[in-house]
Write a sequence for this structure.
């Protein structure tokens, strides 16, 4: 157990280090930096610019910058934002909180919908419900998320069912605490719907495939012969045996919590990491970009790690495999 | 339906769709960058066969719009004048396939311009822009997928054939790329490249960025095939006869990877078209005035456009048939490659 655990942890750590190195490498390849725009401003003298570059260590070679950045990561700062003039980590944390609020809701909802649909579809393989579900997931699959998000936005703006943009109404301060929560829910409805709809087809298809394969196993026929109820059969026996690929997929969902909603946040102007990162890219605020990438990588690694741990817990085959080694 | 038939049908659908976009100059009535400043945000004109006096016409016609009195953006059809469509007529000059000078258009009118899908802020014809925008977006997808497969193929072949430390290093890097969500990676790489570039540079920049992101999966697949192929008896025999590494790879091993590469291409191309659209939508891709599906949609980032001019959303729908075609092709190809696996677990297939 311990060895398995440590090896997975080592993998996650290597992934994070690798990504941070990669991100830094790209920064040196990039032409231009945050202060280049200032060169055009006659009020800023070239000496000031040189001083600014020195202050932010942009004139130092890459390894030194990387080491000093690592140092600041260890101090919980993750470098310094040029545009916001503060350490990066607190800035990102605020945004990441908003993103997580959105994505955790969407992920839970998507799984809650996809699991029963997938199981139902697998149970009625080739029958009417299965075909309806297959066709509708296929239809959702061919509508790319950009088109889906924009379509929802156009629809909502024309009907006015939900508020669009941001995560709070202008008069939020005046509302009672119950209405505050309602207001938040209304603002979340649209981005959550877009995320759920884009996540569902793949999840349903994976659940369907995994369960359908298990349903043909002899032990389920035996269980059926013992007169075990249909629901128990499906959800306690079949789903558990089919869990292996689904747990990996769930880990992937967890890993994508910070990065999966990037585009939808931008389209729906949700104040999460997505728009913040885009802004930083356009302003050449490199440490914010690196920080954002690192943040999402940490989540990704954590998601993979969690999936591995869950697999160990769910699937006895892995347990025996890792102890026999 | 047999598998071969299925693949053929999907290829036919895709061929037709790409043909339309390839000959955008012929199908589009106007030049996509030509402006008509007097008619910004004109709604789509409806094709009529029946005129206001209930007379049936065989030749479709449209009624021009006029401003509803007292408003500045509400249009009503002016039923007093009709503009009949003319088919296969000479119009704006364009270059067919990029080099053949031509003037023939599928349809047009003698007199005033008509806008079947409305106009944008500068009075440019939305239909023409969607058709020409498809050229940019699809070409970016095709080039990107081509480069990705080339990179993945080379890396996979080297890793699989030579093995040892090369295999270790290359596959660790591939895992790194695989682990990251592709949109993030796309952003990250794009973030560190120049922002303001001319359209042609931007196009190749995008292709390069997209291609750099996705090589890991094809590389791993190719590696797997090469690994199993190089242990075959006939290859050992060929080596015994003195065949060089290059000859073995070229003659015996790499041809085996073709079906995997084809399947990957069918999966990657729509993904990459979407990548181009996403980048252009966010203003990191192909800049105006050159149309691409992404930057056509970027108009929707303005709230006023979103509220009032629904036809600006149409470019998003333009790609749906292409996605359908590629998805169908990919699943048909997958069925051919792994016939037994897919029958039960039809993940990528359409119903």
């Amino acid at each position: 157990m311990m060895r398995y655990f440590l090896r997975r942890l080592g993998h996650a750590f290597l992934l994070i280090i690798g990504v941070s190195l990669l991100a830094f490498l790209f920064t040196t390849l990039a032409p231009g930096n945050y202060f280049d725009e200032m060169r055009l401003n006659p009020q800023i003298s070239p000496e000031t610019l040189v001083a600014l570059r020195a202050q932010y260590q942009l004139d130092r070679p890459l390894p030194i910058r990387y080491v000093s950045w690592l140092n600041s990561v260890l101090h919980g700062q993750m470098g310094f934002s040029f545009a916001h003039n503060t350490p990066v980590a607190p800035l990102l944390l605020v945004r990441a909180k908003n993103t997580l609020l959105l994505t955790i809701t969407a992920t839970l909802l998507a799984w809650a919908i996809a699991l029963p649909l997938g199981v139902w579809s697998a149970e009625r393989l080739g029958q009417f419900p299965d075909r309806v579900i297959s066709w509708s997931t296929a239809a959702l699959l061919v509508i790319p998320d950009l088109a889906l998000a924009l379509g929802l936005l156009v629809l909502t703006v024309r009907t006015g069912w939900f508020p669009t943009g941001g995560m709070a109404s202008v008069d939020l301060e005046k509302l009672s605490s119950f209405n505050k929560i309602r207001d938040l829910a209304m603002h979340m409805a649209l981005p959550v719907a877009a995320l759920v709809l884009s996540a569902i087809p793949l999840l349903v298809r994976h659940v369907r495939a995994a369960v359908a394969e298990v349903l043909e196993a002899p032990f389920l026929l035996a269980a059926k012969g013992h007169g075990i109820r249909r629901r128990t059969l499906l959800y306690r026996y079949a789903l558990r045996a089919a869990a292996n690929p689904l747990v990996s997929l769930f880990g992937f969902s967890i890993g994508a919590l910070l990065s999966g909603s990037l585009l939808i946040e931008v389209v729906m102007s949700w104040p999460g990491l997505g728009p913040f990162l885009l802004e930083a890219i356009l302003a050449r605020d490199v440490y914010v970009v690196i920080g954002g990438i690192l943040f999402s990588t940490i989540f990704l690694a954590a998601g993979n790690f969690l999936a591995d741990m869950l697999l160990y817990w769910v699937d006895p085959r892995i347990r025996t495999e890792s102890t026999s080694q | 339906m047999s598998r071969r038939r299925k693949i053929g049908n999907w290829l036919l659908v895709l061929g037709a769709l790409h043909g339309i976009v390839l000959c955008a100059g012929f199908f589009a009535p106007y030049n996509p960058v030509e402006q008509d400043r007097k008619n910004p945000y004109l709604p789509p004109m409806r094709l009529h066969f029946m005129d206001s006096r209930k007379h049936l016409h065989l030749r479709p016609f449209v009624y021009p719009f006029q401003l509803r009195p007292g408003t500045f953006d509400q249009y009503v059809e002016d039923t007093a004048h009709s503009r009949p469509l003319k088919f296969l007529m000479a119009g704006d000059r364009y270059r067919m396939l990029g080099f053949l000078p031509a003037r023939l258009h599928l349809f047009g009118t003698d007199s005033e311009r008509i806008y079947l899908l409305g106009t944008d802020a500068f009075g440019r014809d939305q239909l023409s822009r969607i058709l020409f925008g498809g050229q940019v977006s699809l070409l970016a997808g095709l080039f990107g997928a081509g480069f990705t497969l080339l990179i993945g193929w080379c890396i996979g072949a080297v890793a699989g054939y030579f093995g040892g430390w090369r295999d270790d290093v290359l596959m660790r890097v591939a895992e790194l790329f695989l682990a990251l969500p592709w949109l993030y990676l796309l952003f990250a790489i794009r973030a560190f490249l120049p922002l303001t570039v001319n359209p042609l540079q931007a196009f190749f920049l995008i292709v390069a960025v997209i291609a750099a992101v996705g090589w890991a999966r094809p590389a791993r697949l190719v590696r797997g095939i090469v690994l199993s192929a190089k242990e075959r008896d006939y290859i050992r025999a060929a080596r015994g006869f003195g065949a060089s590494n290059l000859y073995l790879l070229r003659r015996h091993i790499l041809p085996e990877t073709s079906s995997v590469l084809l399947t990957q291409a069918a999966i990657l191309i729509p993904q990459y078209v979407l990548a181009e659209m996403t980048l252009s939508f966010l203003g990191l891709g192909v800049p105006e005035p050159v149309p691409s599906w992404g930057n056509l949609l970027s108009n929707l980032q303005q709230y006023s456009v979103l509220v009032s001019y629904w036809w600006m959303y149409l470019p998003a729908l333009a790609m749906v048939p292409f996605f359908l075609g590629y998805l169908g092709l990919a699943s048909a190809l997958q069925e051919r490659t792994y016939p037994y696996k897919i029958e039960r677990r039809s993940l990528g297939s359409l119903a």
The mean pLDDT of chain A is 82. Chain A touches chain B through 54 residues (CB under 8 Å). Chain A is about 75% helix and 0% strand. The radius of gyration of chain A is 24 Å.
